[in-house]
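Report of the visiting student (M.T.), summer placement. My assignment was to run the structure pipeline on a short list of targets and document each run. The first record concerns Dephospho-CoA kinase.
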Amino acid sequence: MTETTLLDYVELAVYPIYLICSSLISFLVIFNQRKIKKRFKIDLMITFMIIYISNFFITYFNFQLLNMYIRVGLPMSVIFLSIYIQSKITIIGLTGGIACGKSAVGNYFKDFLKLSIIDCDILSRRVVEVGKPAYNKLKERYGNKILQENGEIDRAELGKLVFNNPAIRKHVTQTTGWYIMLEILKEIYQIGFVKKENVMLLDAPILYETKYLEYICHPIIVVFLSQEQLQIERLVKRDKISEEEALKKIKSQMPISKKIEKADITICNDGTIEDMKKQVNRILPQLVQ
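After the run finished, the structure tokens were exported:
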């Protein structure tokens, strides 16, 4: 029997971290296998084998204090779980520029394809309800100036701060982002495993800006307008604001050209509702690949 060394105890302490990291990598790779296949022409089975063999050798020759079946079996179980979940669930991402008609596209998907919608606008309101952690953090940071008389968050006032100050926008996004992600995961579980629907739509205005959402969605649809002036006019009419304020809101988001470049599918929404529906009908085969 070999003597236990300090290195053995260090490996034992590191193993949970390794398990968490390898689990996250496995989930991300498996969920993005269609993107990987499209970019690198690598099949899912090859991707799976690379992950499997890497995990096997890392765990087999390290973490010697743990039973071999535990140190090798747990990461492998995560890989198989990732494949199972990915095979059960397809999350279509929907994003685009502000006032580009993204909600109209989402509603058509809901009504025509009968898809369940995960609406991040609704979730963002839910996480800042009175008494919730994100609400308390925002109130502590910005005080009563962002509150209505009834104590609820005044979204108009908070919006002014966000659109006029990049530092505040970053802080608010970071403060609410984690809680919104938890709500998204709850919705995915409810739709995919309770309702047993294998396709759902994630409607997220800042899908690309949040960094992580694009890695759980495929395909990603970007709705845009070809002319910025048309976007300004629609935003002025919708929010009853000046053109200057509308332009500030547009400029606060990722340029639509970058979103189009990253998108799997694009919808130009310059025309009528009927024009939009025709475009959606044309892309349906791409959604079920």
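The CA atoms of residues 117 and 201 lie 5 Å apart. DSSP finds 13 helices and five strands in the chain. I thank the supervising group for their guidance throughout the placement.
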